Amino acid sequence: MTAQTWTGGPEAAPHPHHHHGWWWKTLLTGLALWILTIVVTIVTGNTNLIPTLILLGSFLVPFCVVLFAIERVGGSVSSLQLVLAFFIGGIFGVLGASLLEVNLHQSYWLYLLVGLIEELVKGILLVIIGWRVVPKTAAQGALLGATVGAGFAAFESAGYAFNAAITARGIDLVSLLETEVLRAILAPVGHVLWTAVLGAVLFGAARGRDRFRFSIWIVVTYVGVAVLHGLWDSASDLAAVIALLANGRAIEELTTAGGLSAQTASAVTALAGILYIVVLIVVAAGGILTLWLVLRHYRRAERAGAVAHSAVGQPAVSDPPAPPQRPIV
Going by C-beta distance under 8 Å and a sequence separation of 6 or more, which residues neighbour residue 233? Predict the structure, then answer.
């Protein structure tokens, strides 16, 4: 297929928003507005501002991910499509996950089941949203996947923030802010990262085609990101178990007395807090490394395909010319 007959047409031109850095400008502006809202809420005691705090704190970082994607995406994907993917993916993602998780019961496999369900829902939405996207490349898939994951993270964070704010004693502003800060910091290496990895493999497997193509690596990647998701959600429990096993006195006290002394409990709690952060860092690093390796693999495959076609003096029939894109990582 030549450039003249490529179905991408004029829509494939680079977006006018490229290279403007709107994502970090929006992040700084939104952060200032969030802080201002906190100050006004504290000074006035006006609880009507709580929804504003929840929306700003929950959506700021995820929406900046969308702007980051808009500045780098190419092909037939428009800015409006990415914004719609953010909201549609987020709303239907949390609704679908809630329906599928409603009958789950506490068990050793709970976190893994949650990961399998939520990553499946996001994966299905990613296929639906990206069905007509051309060209299908790993980079396009990673950006679109990150957008869908960001939408899911935003609406999920809003729910967590709301639950943290509502207590039997009234509105707990400190708990609300702590929840928002923690989830905002972790958002890029949570749902955003996992769906970006899945999107990169899903689109990468369809490289040079207008439609998705099944590959066993899609299944492997889905299971992999679900496991990462499960480990992430279970980080607190894992840290507590490791801290107990690492403390010989704790094991002895549990065996003989059936409980922990105040001193031992304090030591275990402190170690568990450190290990919790370590587990999150390890899981996040695993996801980032996976995304980098996947993108590098498909970049090499694309270059190898281009070299092979140029060697025989023919344009790549299956690979439409993609507009220049800024690197993702």
Answer: 111, 114, 115
